[in-house]
């Protein structure tokens, strides 16, 4: 109704003036009264905030032991979103991560407990899932248009110490054979007595770490079977895939006086 009240008098005024003014003058009059009215405000749905308090959590959560929060974004949730929604959600998650990191640092400085630290893990998981969904769409688009994934090529190569890593290629202005700085920094080869000795000790260290981890898991399973003889062995086997739970359960020192349950 307010719009009609503004348009009706204007239309009557224009009908009287069009007979005596030119087309350019009529357009300037219409632009001055309709296209840019001085009383119209731009609609805003969010409160503008340009202050450092956006890097901090809500004040009602300060000093709390636990903050209520939801779950992270899964890939199935993100796949039904549009590209525009994913773009906006990325900046929302980025802003949330910056806020949580600021609050975590502030709590460490004041020797206080950071409430619900699992929020950082959920935000990181959501951002990783979002990035993976975007990469899936990019791969599908490039495979449909060009027949390739569109991602940077890469391969597993050794460095100067013989340690293998995944190298992702990227474009250079200078060709590879003429790029002296690139060739000096990227040497995908190794050799020499010192390097071979290093690789032998390095592989020995990795083997010892795997062996210690396997022994720790085995001892933990033995402790659980001694303390809880009726524990679900299938769940225990899923929790510790490197340990043969059935073989340990048949040991006399674990079973003690408990009868062995038949598999049938």
Kindly summarize this structure in a few lines:
This protein is mainly alpha-helical.
Describe the model:
One of its GO terms (molecular function) is structural constituent of ribosome. InterPro entries: MRP-L47_sf, Ribosomal_uL29_mit. It is found in: Mitochondrion. One of its GO terms (cellular component) is mitochondrial large ribosomal subunit. Its main location: mitochondrion. Helix 1 (2-17) runs antiparallel to helix 2 and helix 4 packs antiparallel against helix 5 (118-145). The chain is mainly alpha-helical and 264 residues long. It has a two-stranded antiparallel sheet with strand order 1-2. It has three domains: 54-146; 153-190, no CATH class; 191-259, no CATH class. The chain contains ten helices and two strands.
What structural keywords apply?
3 domains; 264 residues; two-stranded antiparallel sheet; mainly alpha
């Amino acid at each position: 109704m307010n719009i009609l009240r503004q348009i009706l008098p204007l239309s009557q005024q224009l009908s009287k003036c069009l007979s005596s003014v030119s087309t350019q003058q009529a357009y300037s009059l219409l632009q001055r009264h309709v296209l840019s009215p001085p009383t119209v405000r731009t609609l805003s749905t969010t409160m503008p905030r340009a202050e450092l308090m956006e890097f901090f959590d809500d004040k009602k959560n300060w000093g709390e032991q636990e903050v209520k929060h939801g779950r992270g974004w899964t890939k199935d949730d993100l796949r039904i979103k549009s590209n525009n929604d994913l773009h906006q959600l990325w900046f929302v998650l980025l802003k949330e991560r910056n806020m949580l990191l600021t609050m975590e640092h502030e709590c460490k400085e004041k020797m206080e407990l950071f409430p619900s630290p699992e929020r950082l893990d959920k935000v990181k998981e959501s951002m990783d899932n979002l990035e993976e969904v975007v990469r899936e769409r990019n791969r599908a688009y490039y495979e449909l248009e060009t027949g390739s994934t569109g991602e940077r090529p890469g391969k597993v190569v050794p460095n100067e110490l013989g340690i293998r890593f995944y190298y992702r290629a990227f474009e250079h202005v200078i060709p590879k054979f003429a790029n002296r700085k690139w060739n000096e920094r990227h040497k995908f080869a190794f050799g020499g007595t010192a390097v071979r000795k290093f690789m032998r000790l390095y592989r020995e260290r990795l083997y010892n770490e795997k062996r210690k981890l396997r022994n720790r898991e085995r001892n933990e399973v033995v402790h659980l079977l001694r303390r809880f003889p009726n524990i679900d062995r299938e769940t225990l086997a899923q929790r510790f895939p490197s340990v043969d739970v059935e073989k340990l359960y048949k040991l006399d020192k674990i079973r003690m006086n408990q009868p062995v349950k038949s598999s049938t």
